[in-house]
Amino acid sequence: MAQRVLVVDDSQLMRQIIADFLSANGFAVAGEARDGLEALQLAETLQPDLVTLDIGLPQLGGITVLQKLKTVSPATRVMVVSAIHDKSLVLQALEAGAADFLHKPISEDLLVESARRLTSQPAA
Q: How far apart are CA 88 and CA 66, in angstroms?
């Protein structure tokens, strides 16, 4: 059974790129969200195996979404995919529960490798 992924990014183009990369490599894109509130609602409903999460989101920022995801979908792993290259933000995201942090622009190989690694680990 394919691993289910929720793709969260405020850019429709970036959501499409990530979804296409993952779909082409055997993942099932269960949903897409364009802001933090929508991400939390979908995560609670879908209970995905993996969330790809941008940090700079409208409505509710990515760090807050990370913190709340532990409550609404505790077994879901989160991979942050962001254009922000601030080391303190990377550390903040990892401390808030991100399992990986990838920088945009993202390569298909790197994204898929990380997604496979994260979804092959036993649930926390």
A: 16
